Amino acid sequence: MADYNTYRTAQGVGTRSAVIDEGLRAYMNKVYGLMAVGMGVTAVAAYGISTAAVDASGQLTQLGTAIYASPLKWVIMFAPLLVVFAFGAAMNRLSVQGATMLFYGFAALMGLSISSIFLVYTPFSIVQTFLVTAIAFAGLSLWGYTTKKDISGWGSFLIMGVIGLIVASIVNIFLASSAMQFAISILGVLIFAGLTAYDTQNIKNTYLRLAGTDRDFLGKTAIMGALQLYLDFLNLFMFLLQFMGNRE
After folding, report:
1. What pLDDT is recorded for position 30?
2. Ranges of H-type helices in 53-95
3. Membrane-crossing residues (predicted)?
4. Are 226 and 103 in contact (CB under 8 A)?
């Protein structure tokens, strides 16, 4: 009888583990899928806007002048940052579908914000940097997902680093120091490389804590996870582009 009960208990634990593993796999696939679609929206928006911003002779159109050479450029530059802060506050009031649409809308806005890269850098260097970023991101995210090491302690230092990057970048808008920009780029690559691994592990642990709870709530946490990884990827790409990008 004891052997039977032991077997039955072990069988139950194995079944629960299998269910959690299957649910975690589906959850992470959803996170990565949302992130990939968001990146696609950003790429299409950035390329489409940059194409409409110049005419056949390479001169800025009215749209291009408004976006890149008027005070509106400051609004476009900082609007995504404001939306990120508002995203968390709005999440609880939105449905899963509404939160998904907000995420894609943010991705399109980010495309507008970075569209100038197609006017500054050569297409080949943009594609090359994107591929390097994708390979680095995949390796870092895989390590964050599979490592047994608890890296939750990285969070506070990385967030402080991001705040420092934002402040330094704003200051350098006025200083226009190439040396400072170089230092910011190096730190940016290191910080967002760390955040990629940290966020992946955090997303995984969030699911393990919440598995079996309200499905809508899990759907919203998946969208937040996709947003975090999307920002990690995009910032890693932008900082690497400053090293690898060949200017037009």
Report:
1. 95
2. 62-68, 72-91
3. 31-54, 74-94, 101-120, 126-145, 157-176, 182-200, 221-244
4. yes
- Closest CA relative to residue 219, chosen from 97, 107, 105: 97
Relative orientation angle of helices 72-91 and 215-244, to the nearest 10 degrees = 150
C-beta separation of 82 from 106 below 8 A: no
| pLDDT at 24 exceeding the cut of 60 | yes
d(CA 194, CA 189): 9
Neighbour tally for 27: CB within 10 Å: 22
Q: How far apart are CA 151 and CA 144, in angstroms?
A: 8
**8 Å CB contact between 122 and 247:** yes
Neighbours of 81 (CB within 10 A): 11
Residue pair 106/224 in contact by the 8 Å Cβ criterion = no
